[in-house]
Amino acid sequence: MNSVFHALGSLADPFILFIVVAGTAAGIIVGALPGLGSVLAITLALPLTFVLPPEASIILLLALYCGSIYGGSLSAILINTPGTPQSAATLLDGFPMMKKGRGAEAMGWATVGSAIGGLLSTVLLILAAPVLAKFGLRFGPIEYFALGVFALTCVVAISTEAPLKGLLACVLGLLLATIGQDPLTGGMRLTFSSFELSAGIGLVPLLVGLFALSEVFWRLSSGLGPPPAKVGAGFKLPGLRDLISRWRILLRSALIGTGVGTLPGVGATAASLISYAEARRVSPNREQFGQGEPDGILASETANNAVTSGALVPTLALGIPGDPITAVMLGALTLQGVTPGPQLFTDNPDLTTFIFLGLFVVNIAMLLLGMAICPLVSRLIRIPEPLLLSGVVILIAIGTYSVSYNPFDMLVLLIAGIGGYALRVLHFPLAPIVIGFVLGGMIEQSLRQGLILTDGSFLAFLASPIAAVLFFLTIAFCTVPPLLARSKARYRDG
């Protein structure tokens, strides 16, 4: 109880509250700028941790983490470009709502979903941190492979109108993920003797090119017109009745985000895609997904913000980063003299309690700041479309280059933009490419390590109870919906 009072006293400090507000606002703005993202926001803030007290440093990193993941949804909704990879699923329904003049409503759903996801996952973190940490520790290569295969079934849900094209797009993403050095043998693959390709293709230039630059090309080819944000820009909170009626999606998405967050290296992108696919499977409004359905935004944003607390479980309890962002945070904690690991909860209860309660404060600040910042951000889209598109191109170029200061990333950005435009013309979905690319490395490495462990026997994978359950869910997820649709069609015809 003393640790709770100590944490509350620290959070009541005006300087700490200022850090919370400033860090969250900065995170939202950085997250909303395509190509920047959470890792860059936290990395740029690392020098400040040398001069700030430990608690102020930690709360700053948490505020940047939560704010930047939420901020990615704003650009996804407004300009069909996820500011961060974690919001890739948000644009599937967010931008269609914007085009229908419901942009204010879409940003309201994203903001509320993000805050509720963060708060629910924090509660789950406090109640179940030891259990979740132990469960995450049980995942080995075989279990990770099964999880990756299950995540790929999101393609079935996202591409129901053209499943074959969705599958081909996913295969393209998996193929792109293999470019570069083989993780096990060290050999070069698909580099065509190019030194730049030996390190593989960066996620940021690929993602920004596929969605942002191809969107610019698409609008230019379609003819410039009034920007869609002239109708529906601003901010509108969802009604309490509408929110309560979706409590199942909120809870399910928070559970998915927290659970996936506890698995080291998986991250919020996979969580949001899995949550989106699951929401589409069970939602009574599933037919409206992809056309501007709030359930899709709510599922994606609740899950990816729930990962923030879930990813802290292996980071704090095991000293294993839950994702690349918490890997940076792990280094910052070490610089502050904090040693994450199994003894942290018993050796430093004041700090862990401060982190838990700090997450509550940060998510509440994110909700309030989102309500204030969304109308300001949406006004940027009211400018004439030629100026808007020019600004978008400048922002994505600066954002992409600033990640690693590699000129080759600009070439990848251009090629991805041209390729994304061609795929749009051919009516191929872009999201499955991202799914395949993000999960490709994990799936390949886990499969090969699993085969080494089982002497090349794939059937031996079923000996793992966790993997067997995930494989069963994958098969059910792929077969049950089509069978139900067929039976409903027969019932209507008969």
TrEMBL record:
- Keywords annotated in UniProt: Membrane, Transmembrane, Transmembrane helix
Q: Which Pfam families match?
A: TctA
Q: Does the keyword DNA damage apply?
A: no
The yes or no answer to whether the keyword Membrane is present is yes
The family database entries (InterPro entries) matched by this protein are listed as: DUF112_TM
Q: List each copy of the DUF112 domain by range.
A: 17-435
Span-the-membrane segments of this chain are 15-46, 58-79, 106-132, 144-177, 197-218, 249-277, 354-374, 386-404, 410-439, 459-484
Name used for this protein in its record? Tripartite tricarboxylate transporter permease
Lineage of the native species? Bacteria, Pseudomonadati, Pseudomonadota, Alphaproteobacteria, Rhodobacterales
